[in-house]
Amino acid sequence: MSAAPTLAETREELARLLSDARTSGRKVGLVPTMGALHDGHASLMREARAQVGDGPVVVSIFVNPMQFAPGEDLDRYPRTLEADLELCAAQGVDLVFAPAVDEVYPGGEPDVTIQPGPLATILEGATRPTHFRGVLTVVAKLFGLVRPDVAVFGQKDYQQLTLIRRMVADLCMGVDVVGAETLREPDGLAMSSRNRYLDTEQRRRAGALSQALVEARDASLWGADVALESARAEMRQAHGVDLDYLVIRAADLGELPCAVPDATEARILVAARVGSTRLIDNMPITLGATSASTRQGVSACCAP
Predict the structure, then answer these.
(1) Quick check: is 239 catalytic?
(2) What is the H or E stretch that residue 205 is in?
(3) What is the architecture of the domain spanning 193-292?
(4) Which of 38, 41, 131, 239 is catalytic?
(5) pLDDT grade for 295, boundaries at 50, 70 and 90
(6) Is 0.85 topped by the overall pTM?
């Protein structure tokens, strides 16, 4: 196992430990997390290492209260710092930044926050209206504290990744945002810190989410309508899974046009609750031949 990463808990420690990298001109890589780390996070760390070479890889571990609404799982979100440090050591992480809440938000919630715009009002934002304001605010603060050249995020949280990329571009933050592919369990379930909430039966039922995405991907040759209906058919057979949304959007999460050109890159996204645990997943798809309903001038992507 590699040497244990250095642990910084304050802004001052973080700045001091990164000063050598900044003066030497080496790239700094950041992997922002909320802890409860798993192999999916490990893959992000490996990607960060590939991006920065001999520069330092920083992993932040911070359960961000601003992105949890009242009644969500802030209090029960798993906090496993000792195990997280072991995983970081195994991946050769140089520095772990694990601040307390008042270190990130001295004086409480900040007066100035990031307003994420209309993309934050759909999908996850439709049921969690303040969520992405909290996400973008803490990511902006981490970028300011770490000043990374590269930041790596997982594609499992695809809406989050899209919003972070837009924030970085719109606010000229100068950070290269890399989206790493989703790591999956052998049965296809996307790796997530929330998977540990599932009991054995719920874990089995949760596999329907990824299977629905696979069905859509396999049917995407025939267009968005057929792909979406294939996924919906899979979800209709999933007992004990309470579907929130199942949609196909453009790769930038905009609406698909009514007439979709062949070989259009798109994204299918799903959210559902299994027991008391809310799970999300998504998959890239390539839309092929236009569906029959689109040829007739009516498409599911345009339906109300």
Answers:
(1) no
(2) helix 200-219
(3) 2-Layer Sandwich (3.30)
(4) 41
(5) very low
(6) yes
